[in-house]
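ok so i was messing around last nite and threw this chain in just to see what happens. nothing serious, just curious
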Amino acid sequence: MYAIAKSGGKQFKIEQNAVIRVPSLHAKVGEKVRLKEILFLSDGEKVAVGRPSIEGVSAEAVVVRHGRNRKIRIVKYKRRKGYRRTIGHRQGFTELEIGRIIVGRKKKPAVESKAPVEEKEKAAVASEVQAAAVESKKAEAVKKVKKPKAKAAKAARKATARKEKPQPAVKQKKAEEKKPAKTAGKTEKAAEKKDKAETGSKTKPKTRAKAKKPAADTTKSKAEKEAADKAKPKKKTVSKKTDSSAREKAKKA
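result:
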C-alpha cells in the first residue's frame, strides 16, 4: 500500500517504513507527527482519489532529524555596468520516518433530528399569528374610538350651523331693507354722472366756425368772355412754305 501526502505545499509518495524529507516542521526529534492531507491511496487493487483530500485517511511519522540541503548560489549580473552579486541559500528540511497509513471509515455527517426544527418553525409561526391578532384588535379598538368622536363632532357642527342660520322672517326683512338702499345708491350715481356731463359741456370752449370761401362766379356773361379772348395776344403761325424758301436762300448765300 502506498499513498501521496501533501506537506509544506509539496507532494510526497509515502509507504510504511519509508524515509522522506519535507520542508522544516516545528517538532522535536523523536516526536510523532501525523500527515492528514492524503491526496491518493492505493492498496494494489483499489484506488481512492481525494477531492482534494481523502476523508478518514492519514499517516503517522516520527521525526528523525533536522538539517539543511546543499547550498544554492544566486548570481546577479548587469553587463557594462560593473554590477555583479553572488548570494547563497540553504533550504532547511525535516527527515521523517513513516510508520503506518491509517485508513478509517468515513464519518457520516451528523443528521439533526427534524422534530426540533419543525417545533421551532411551528412556534415561530404561532408567535407571528398571535402578534398579528393583537395588532388587528388594537386597530379595531382605535377605529371604534374614532367613530363616536367623529359623529359627535359632526353633530356639534350641525348644531352651530343651525344656530348661526337666521330665521326666514328676519331674512325677508333684511332683503327688503337692502333693496331700497341699492336703488338709492344707483339713483345717486346716475345724478352725479349727469352733473359731471353738464359741467363738462359748459366748461368746454366753443369752436369757431371756419369762414367759408366765396364760391367762384360761374355765371359770366358771353360779352365779357369774348372781350377777354380778344385781349390775349395771338400766336404767330409760320407756314411750311416760308420755312423751305428761307432754307433755300440760306443755301444759295
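not much to say yet. The chain has a mean pLDDT of 78.
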